[in-house]
Design a protein that fits this description.
By secondary structure, this protein is α+β, with helices and mostly antiparallel strands. It has 4 domains: about 200 residues, no CATH class; about 100 residues, Beta-Lactamase (2-Layer Sandwich); about 110 residues, Beta-Lactamase, CATH 3.30.450; about 170 residues, Alpha-Beta Plaits. Helix content is about 55%, strand content about 20%. The chain is built from 20 helices and 17 strands. The strands form 4 sheets. It has a 5-stranded antiparallel sheet, sandwiched between helices. The chain is elongated.
């Protein structure tokens, strides 16, 4: 093969024009390593040939040469013989690196022996002078540069011996010129042969590498074909029979690949018509991708699959089709379950009585179910979604409420029973809601959107507020009850301790209330108590606390600075307010009131102490004839230890 016939990347192109050897030292070393067995064989042949020629020529010299020169000839032949024998024995024992020096040494010994014989066989001088370099050039397997140097030295020795014998004559000069020309031609021939050898070696090496890669590729393809978990089959387009099948195909379709090979592909299909349509498409287009069909599986059941197939070589006599079978039965089952779940979710979403929503983290409405749409006063989801641009400012009444909701969502991922006052978005009516929400995260773990439910709890909040109110107020008179009164008393005592001043606790008990209740009934009694509360609030200041302690007992808490005379004046005004008869929705009744007063800090500095002492003063007022005012006096006698619980309502 010529160098220009090789590819641009082939190492055989990288040859020296002069020596014919590789410029790459590593590549040249590879060649010599591959050629070493041949070098050994050639070296043994040369050494053996040298021994044979030495013996033959020694006999010729003995028979034909001048008897005086026979010893010299025999000595030279003996030296050549011994050198050849030594080379033959040593060449198989020495290392690769010593073979070449061994050959060079052998050439030099043979050259010296031949130069000696010029004096013996004068009739063949020119032949010997010209032949020996030619033999060495063409037969000795040394590197080019060493061959040129060695053979130049051989030529000089031979020519020098010739001139020493014959002198400088026209013949010797012509012989010298011929020897120079011969060396040049032999060097060129040696270079050309070496170049051809290396080109052939590089070509063979590249081919072997390519074949090795092809074999490895085939092995890899075969392993992949067998190892791939997707069923693969190769079938004939002519016969329709399966010629090859991987392990996955055998297990999926027949139990084993051996049972599947040789069967007709059409027999695998539930509907043979689909198989025919598939083959027609392959024949027409050369390829089919994701053809949906149903086939018989090894377990006897039918499986939904996607078949993909491709023609390998359209020009072959028996066109081969490679087909893959992807089982989608489980996927279709999951898709069906997903469709049902989506339908159930849609029904739940559309028909839920609670509001269901989805929003972006920055407060944009994405989805809303009909219940939420109605809650906000709109007629359809699209109208609500288009109208809501910022939930934080457009929906929540309390500023920062949405921020608190978002903070909880980011911290825990969900909120439960998050109660807020919001606006119906379209009508701006204020209502109370309870939210349950959760965060949906994206693949990076960041909040993608918020979802949740909410219900209108306005009535619940109103009821809770009312219950909380009546936990501290009398439902009949709408006045603070005893617990609320004691709480206010404690707070005012604490304020008095900080800022000074006085505080008066008035304990009131109605006179002649029981006869009214017994005579006119409980309804009339309730009307009377309600009117009493109204008159007390009318007489007292706005900052005074008026409370119903229980039954027909009331209390007034008033405070001021300076002298507590104002509380006595207030008590007198209360007595005056009871001078007018009470209307009982028809009948009229005159009811009086007895009042006991205790002062802080003079009479005590705790709520219980003051109320107890005001109660004792009230008992003193009752004992003094009713409808009058008494302040606490430590000298109230035995009555000081009694309370209103000991009295019989008057």
């Amino acid at each position: 093969m010529r160098p220009d016939a090789l590819s641009a990347n082939d190492p055989a192109r990288d040859l020296s024009r002069f020596t014919g050897e590789f410029r790459d030292a590593a590549l040249e070393a590879d060649l010599r390593r591959d050629q070493h067995p041949e070098t050994l064989k050639q070296s043994r042949f040369l050494f053996g040939l040298g021994m044979l020629v030495s013996l033959v020529l020694a006999g010729v010299n003995f028979l034909l040469s001048d008897q005086e020169l026979v010893p010299l000839a025999l000595a030279a032949r003996s030296i050549a013989f011994v050198a050849s024998l030594a080379g033959l024995l040593a060449v198989g024992l020495v290392s690769k690196s010593v073979v070449e020096p061994l050959l060079i040494a052998w050439q030099l010994v043979i050259t010296l022996a031949a130069a000696t014989l010029i004096f013996v066989q004068q009739n063949v001088i020119i032949v010997v002078v010209l032949m020996l370099p030619a033999v060495f050039y063409l037969a000795v397997p040394t590197r080019f540069r060493l061959a040129v140097i060695t053979n130049s030295l051989v030529s000089l020795v031979m020519m020098g011996s010739y001139i020493a014998y014959a002198g400088v004559t026209e013949t010797t000069l012509r012989t010298g010129v011929a020897l120079v020309v011969l060396n040049g031609l032999l060097a060129a021939l040696r270079s050309r042969n070496g170049r051809d050898l290396r080109i052939a070696w590089a070509t063979a090496r590249s081919r072997a590498a390519a074949l090795g890669e092809l074999a490895q590729s085939r092995m890899l393809t075969e392993r992949v074909f067998e190892a791939v978990p997707i069923p693969l089959v190769v079938l004939s387009a002519v016969s329709g029979k399966i010629g090859r099948a991987n392990k996955a195909a055998g297990q999926f379709l027949r139990g084993s690949a051996a049972e599947l090979v040789g069967s007709r592909a059409v027999d695998l299909y539930e509907n043979p018509g689909e198989a025919a349509a598939l083959l027609d498409t392959i024949a027409r287009e050369g390829v089919v991708r994701d053809f949906p069909t149903r086939i018989h599986a090894a377990d006897g059941g039918l499986r939904s699959v996607l078949v993909s197939a491709k023609v390998v070589d359209k020009n072959a006599a028996d066109i081969q089709i490679v087909s893959s079978i992807f089982d989608i039965s489980e996927r279709l089952l999951q898709e069906e379950k997903l469709r049902k779940a989506e339908a159930e979710y849609r029904a739940l979403f559309e028909n839920a009585v609670v509001g269901v929503y989805r929003t972006t983290p920055d407060g944009k409405m994405l989805r809303a179910n009909p219940a939420l749409v109605r809650l906000n006063g709109y007629s359809c989801e699209e109208e609500l979604v288009a109208s809501v641009n910022d939930i934080a400012s457009e929906w929540y009444v309390e500023p920062g409420r949405r921020a608190e909701w978002a903070r909880l969502m980011c911290r825990t991922g969900r909120v439960v029973d998050f109660v807020s006052e919001v606006y119906r978005h379209k009508t701006r009516e204020r209502i109370w809601i309870s939210e349950n929400g959760w965060t949906v995260f994206d693949e990076n773990g960041q909040p993608a959107y918020f979802e949740g439910t909410l219900i209108d709890i306005t009535e619940r909040m109103r009821s809770e507020k009312q219950n909380a109110y009546y936990a501290s107020h009398d439902p009949l008179t709408d006045l603070p009850n005893r617990r609320c009164f004691m709480k206010c008393l404690g707070q005012m005592l604490a304020a008095r301790a900080r800022h000074g001043g006085w505080l008066a606790v008035m304990y009131l008990d109605l006179d002649r209330f029981k006869p009214v209740n017994d005579t006119f009934g409980h309804a009339a009694g309730d009307l009377l108590l309600t009117d009493v509360a109204r008159r007390l609030k009318t007489v007292c200041r706005a900052e005074d606390v008026v409370a119903r302690i229980g039954g027909d007992e009331f209390a007034v808490l008033t405070a001021g600075s300076g002298e507590p005379d104002g509380s006595l004046l207030l008590a007198e005004r209360i007595l005056a307010a009871f001078a007018e008869p009470f209307s009982l929705d028809g009948p009229r009744a005159l009811v009086g009131v007895s009042i006991g007063i205790a002062f802080a800090p003079h009479d005590g500095d705790t709520a219980d102490d003051l109320l107890r002492k005001a109660d004792q003063a009230l008992y003193a007022a009752k004992s003094a004839g009713r409808n009058r005012v008494r302040t606490f006096n430590p000298d109230l006698g035995r009555h000081a230890g009694e309370s209103s619980a000991d009295r019989v309502a008057g």
